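FAQ: What does the model actually see?

It sees only this:
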Amino acid sequence: MSSSERNEERNFILECIQVYRDHSALWEIKSDDYMDRNKKNHAYDVLLKKYQERFPTATLDDVKKKFNSLRTNYRKELKKVNDSRKSGAGLEDIYQSHLWYFNEMHFLRDQETPAKSRSTLQILPPPKVANTSNVDDQIDEITETVGEV
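And it is asked to produce this:
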């Protein structure tokens, strides 16, 4: 692939990323649209049509795989940047991503942290221990009743 072809393809992928960004139903996990199957399907249709401008035989699966790959690579690079910041490195030593679309995917940075659980784990106190002599009496009573049958 020549340099100009690679640049054309990169520019096209950047256009596709913009379409993806414009359709938050595909990526904004905290929005109601993200859970709306109809809005998500419509957004995928728009993205697929855009993607097919350059790759006419592409399927919806191809588009999903491509964006899953873009997101995964972005997430890995973001982790490197964040880990570098947390390490206490000086500003000049903080990792700089060389991923050519890193900045264009930066709208996802808040989406990469797990959503808070809707239910909270409630820690219950340990159960009270029953009076064992009372339990022994109950066992004896049950044993007697079973023996009569």
